[in-house]
Amino acid sequence: MWNAIQAIRRRLTTQVGRKAVIGIPYGWLLIFFLVPFLIVLKISFSNVVLAMPPVEPILTWGRDQVLQIRVNLSNYTFVFGDRLYVAAFVNSLRVAAVSTLLALLIGYPMAYGIARAQGAWRNILFLLVSLPFFTSFLLRVYAWIGLLGRGGPVNAILMHLGLIQEPIQLLQTDFAVYLGMVYSYLPFMVLPLYSAIEKLDLTLLEAAADLGCRPSKAFFAVTLPLTREGILAGCLLVFIPAVGEYVIPALLGGPDTLMIGRVVWDEFFANRDWPVASALAIVLLLILSVFVLLLQKVQAGEEEPS
Amino acid sequence: MRTGQSRFVRFMLVAGFAFLYLPIISMIIYSFNASRLVTVWDAAHSPTLAWYVELFSNDEILEAAQLSFRVAAISATGAVMLATLAAFALVRYRRFRARALFGLLVTAPMVLPEVITGLSLLLLFVALTQWIGWPAGRGATTITIAHVTFCLAYAVVVIQARLATVDRSLEEAAMDLGARPWKVFWVITLPLILPAIASAWMLSFILSWDDIVITSFVSGPGSTTLPQLVFSKVRLGVSPDINALATLLVGVVSVCVAIAGTVMMRTERRRARDAQIAMGAH
Amino acid sequence: MTQQMTETKPSHSEMPYVRIDHVTKRFGSFEAVNQVSLDIEKGEIFCLLGGSGCGKTTLLRMLAGFEEPTEGAIYIDGVDVTSVPPYERPVNMMFQSYALFPHMTVAQNVAFGLRQDGVSKSDALLKVREMLAMVQLEGYESRKPHQLSGGQRQRVALARALVKRPKLLLLDEPLGALDKKLRERTQFELVNLQEKLGVTFVIVTHDQEEAMTLASRLGVMQSGKILQVGSPTDIYEFPNSRYVADFIGSVNLFDGQLTVDEPDHCLIHCEALGLEVHIDHGVSSAPDALVTVALRPEKIRLSREQPAQVENCVQGWVTGVAYLGDSTRFLIQLDNGTQVQVTRPNIDRHDEHLAADERVWAFWEGNSPVVVAR
Questions:
Q1: Which residues pair with A48 in a beta bridge?
Q2: For residue range C130-175, what is the model confidence (pLDDT) as tens digits?
């Protein structure tokens, strides 16, 4: 009898402990992550009014105590009907894609060099690649404002070399945005590439050489295919945040650099059009979720024992 | 294959690191420049510490830095505590209801554009104020909540990776020797994942300290974090005291990383020595 | 020990020390352990032997309390411990990986269990010293696990599990991580220690040699069931099934049909051998039953000349010779193609050995083969 009571008590305490371990973080995420989304979704279906908050409720009690739901798709038709928004989406995807490609072209040889460096050098170079990640993102973007300015070092060097006669406009151009993107997200590209190349079994390359494959050919026949998942992971890790980037276009881009992160920001803060901002956010989320799912698939594939 | 690198790879390494570090170095150099025009080197009066002096006498900046530090410290602590629980749930309780949703919620903030996270949290706070009157206004509290939420994702990844490598039989052994589950966690599991908890805390601190987009959405008047202040200043152009600030931050981070690196190398060396002792111990 | 189970009195005195009563464990639809019943006596070394996935580890984990049986009950010293959690059981375990706490010293590891029971630091230290002396690890108190060799880690794990003087010590592949030489030495140390302390041991292993040398009794498991329980000699000499005969040591298996079954002898017609195998005892089986004859390689003798006996005698060619040092293994191919394995001890160094491609007679005693069900 005593044993039975003990067993029940024990089971209850373990149950409570287990529930708390799962429930506390779960609850936090539900309240501060999932519910906010649902609110964004809700607001994207409502109308702008002059009030605080500046939106019309979509759930109202009608005269006969009937719950009325007014779903308004006009924000979405507005978003897709307006050239400006569509252009912003297209431009964001283009800027992100080009930046990703550039980062890959620079990042792959770097990652290869680090992974194949000797002994202590490898650790030092690895640390040097990850170090910028720990220094302020904002300040690193800011550094380029000084460098690219009309009287800045870049213009000075170009003039010194005789490539240009007078200072050219570098800041507030698409060029500056690409530069900032590649610069900021390069470590995200290099790190997964590094781990993929580092894992590569060197005897495979020796086997290729033994079978008569030249090093340059072995790179395309062995190294590149075997690091495909690292390449994909690196590209997605750069591409996904680049699409929604706000700070880089805001600081380095010109007034005509349309990127969706900036448009959401402006709709929200400058135009105070919460429903349109919400609708834009939902569309952006849907576009990105395709790539996020792809990333998850790549990462799940990496975890599987080969 | 092991003999050296091709010239191309070597060139790309040098060029790549130059690309990564030249902007930072130029910021450091210009922080000692006397001229207010950032791009003009005033050789007559440089180097100077004038901008550092100005930085430390600027109450606005000091106040913002203080707020940022406080928010970052609290957010990192909160995020790490929640992340430890979440990682435990994900690694140790293989099956529970809505585990898939939980896994998705935990990692989603990492891949979500900050504008979306910021916007959604602001809308939540507005709605909460409407429904229950809390939070009364936006400020340090709402910023902290937002930061905990997005830092949580990174912290979970770090802690989860470590927890997964902790041999389950260690916990079972402790239980077998008479320790109750709660005690097992404190005396066995926690000490073993402590290094990961420390790195998760540091990572969260840095993410929170550095965040600008999410903060801008959820902060209110009267609560301006350091990145917000920097952002509003640099939008108007280059400002030499920001160079000084950047130099200080880079210096602090470098020192921290150097310390961490040395500690890591020393533990590795000690491990190698211990392994030798063990070899000779037969 | 602060175990609650002292509350309940052993209900019947005739109950064995450990009783596993119709225990089943399911993981989802997979049945890891299927209706196992087993009694273990006080002070014995009982070995659970089986291949990977046979359920032996799950059974051990149920004894430790890490898994709760889906059906059935487990009694230790007369007390039902079926759903008692591991931290309240008078049972300790030595893990396959040893599971030494890496952040604690040897002394802290060994003292851990005592400290959980509220033993004072000084008392614990005395017991730890005593225990470490017993496993010959004096002076290693302040070492960390990673500063120890594999054999030393194994002994720390043993000391840690024994210091609480459990009613039952569970050992999961206790020698699996040691190299061959160390393993042979440790086997005897383990048995000596067990005799000195009188603790009941339950050992799980997949290594039949380890099981044979350590166990006073052993149980062979397959697919969640116990096939046979007995002394090492019983299991080796009188396996009750084809699986057990094949699992323990090497064996020649020949399918056949019972033709004569008298109390003092029986005959089994084996197509593969091309003869009626004569066996010295009856099997009291159904007439014409389909059976298997199991014949150990070391029980077969070889000769160039035709032996005196007429029964249990076949002729063939030597097709393989493997010199193993203490013995030599021959592969004989009979004229109908059947392969027979024979092992002969190398007693005389100057013996004139059989070589490949020689024609030989292979023969055995009537009491050598064992008849098992097909």
A1: A55
A2: 999 999 999 999 999 999 998 999 999 999 999 999 999 999 999 8
Task: Kindly list the domain boundaries of chain A, sorted by start residue.
Answer: 2-69, 83-303
Mean pLDDT of A239-256: 90
Which residue of chain B comes nearest to C87, CA vs CA?
A: B178
| Mutation target among A1, A3, A9 for the C interface, most CBs of C within 10 A | A3
Rounded mean pLDDT of A165-181? 90
Distance between A17 CA and the closest CA of chain C, angstroms: 15
**CATH number, domain B59-279:** 1.10.3720.10
A3/C85 touch (CB, cutoff 8 Å), yes or no? no
Sheet holding C71-76, edge to edge: C30-40, C18-27, C71-76, C79-80
Cβ separation C7–A10 shorter than 8 A? no
Q: Could you give phi then psi for residue C189, rounded to 5 degrees?
A: -60, -40
Low-confidence ranges of chain B (pLDDT < 70): 1-5, 37-40, 46, 279-282
- CB nearest B176 (choices: C64, C101, C102): C64
Whether A79 contacts A85, CB under 8 Å:
yes
Tell me A73's DSSP state. Answer: -
Tokens representing residue B61 in the block: 């900046």
Phi-psi sector, C173: left (phi>0), alpha (psi -120 to 50), beta: left
Q: What is the mean pLDDT of chain A?
A: 84
Whether A51 shows a pLDDT value over 80: the answer reads no
Alpha carbons A18 and B97: distance in angstroms, whole number:
12
Residues 28-87, chain B: which have Cβ within 8 Å of A?
A: 30, 37-40, 82-83, 85-86
Q: Does A7 touch chain C (CB under 8 A)?
A: yes
pLDDT(C2) > 50: no
Class of domain C4-242: alpha beta
Q: Which helix (H) or strand (E) holds B55?
A: helix B50-57
Task: Tell me which CATH homologous superfamily contains domain A83-303.
Answer: MetI-like (1.10.3720.10)
State which residue of chain B sits closest to C163, comparing Cα positions.
B177
Cβ partners under 8 Å of residue B113, min gap 6: A241, A243, A244, A245, A246, A261, A284, A288
With CA atoms as reference, report the closest residue to B126 among B218, B223, B206. B218
> Residues 6 or more apart from B43 whose CB is under 8 A from it?
none
Q: Where are the domains of chain C?
A: 4-242, 250-373
CA dist., res. C235 & res. C233, Å (int) = 5
The CATH code that applies to domain C250-373 is 2.40.50.140
Q: ipTM beyond 0.90?
A: no
Q: Which residues are CB-contacts of C164 (< 8 A; sequence separation ≥ 6)?
A: B177, B178, C1, C92, C113, C114, C117
Determine the angle formed by the axes of helices A119-134 and B7-30, rounding to 10 degrees: 40
Domain spans of chain B, in order of start: 59-279
Task: Please report the pLDDT score of residue C9 as a whole number.
Answer: 44
Asked whether residue A125 carries a pLDDT value surpassing 80, the answer given is: yes
Q: Which residues of B touch C93 (CB under 8 A)?
A: 172-173, 176
Residue C82 distance to chain A (closest CA, Å): 10
CB contact under 8 A, C8 and A3: yes
Q: Give CA C366 to chain center in angstroms.
A: 28
Tell me what percent of chain B is helix, strand and coil, each rounded to the nearest 5.
80, 0, 20
Given this model, what pLDDT does residue A136 score?
83
Cross-strand bridge partners of residue C49: C205, C220
Handedness of CA B142, B143, B147, B150 (dihedral sign): positive
In angstroms, rounded to a whole number, what is the distance separating the alpha carbons of residues A266 and A280?
A: 11
- C196 contact partners, CB below 8 Å, separation of at least 6: C134
Inter-chain CB proximity B278 and C102 less than 8 Å = no
CB contact under 8 A, B271 and C99: no
